[in-house]
Amino acid sequence: MNQANMPQKATKKKDSHDKRSKFVGLAESRTSAAIKAIRVIGKLGNKAHYEYSEADVRKISQALLREIEELKTRMLSTGVKPQIEFKL
């Protein structure tokens, strides 16, 4: 191995570490925020303060589950953009 390749490999390794570190930090903060937001939605379950139907609960649950599936698809895909479809 010659000397010219060593700094370049070290830089690539550092870049990879920086990307990983950035991912971990963002993933932890965004996941925590999403969990908090879901818990806030859960507080709507207080029947003393709110009126809702079982259909409302299903719609909220289905929307959240769809987004979780979309998240998995995006993170595990090889660059194919997901299609957005919404129908009433």
Describe it.
By secondary structure, the protein is an all-alpha fold. The chain has one domain (8-75). It contains 2 helices and no strands. The chain has helices at 5-42, 54-76. The model has no long low-confidence stretch (mean pLDDT 87).
Strand segment count: 0
What percent strand? under 5%
Order of helices and strands: HH
Estimate the helix proportion, in percent: 55-70%
The end-to-end span amounts to 62 Å
Question: How many helices does DSSP assign?
Answer: 2
Low-pLDDT regions: none
Overall geometric form: elongated
Q: Specify the biggest β-sheet.
A: none
Radius of gyration: 21 Å
Mean pLDDT: 87
What class, by secondary structure content?
Answer: mainly alpha
**Please, how many domains?**
1
Question: What would you say about this model in short?
Answer:
The protein contains two helices and no strands.
Write out key terms for the chains shown.
mainly alpha
Helix and strand arrangement:
Elements: H1 5-42, H2 54-76
